[in-house]
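Board notes (copied after class):
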Amino acid sequence: QLVESGGGLVQSGGSLRLSCATSLGSLDPYFVGWFRQAPGKEREGVSCIGGIEGRTLYAESVKGRFTVSRDNAKKTVYLQMNSLKPEDTGVYYCAAVGGAIGGIPTLRPGWYDYWGQGTQVTVSS
């Protein structure tokens, strides 16, 4: 089970931190990814983290602005979003897939098996 929180309304240039609380036994064997979907658009990958080393991957559109991290003890993954833009608006989902130990991180939604219900992020101009 994955449960997102932390969404809301923020002005352009502002910040939000999303949380994804998981019921996974351990985060190491999983890639946990963040995805977003704007109205009328396909779901797109934003960032992911996984493996023993906590490898990360970012979409080009968020590099330098978003940071993904995790707290293994809390089994929670975070997405710190800074310098937000109106085009970052959408429903943000977290998702998980196994195979992270020795695996290659991916932002392809179809590879992920477990999904949260999403949290709305709205960035006003």
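Comment from the instructor: The chain has a mean pLDDT of 96. The CA atoms of residues 41 and 90 lie 10 Å apart.
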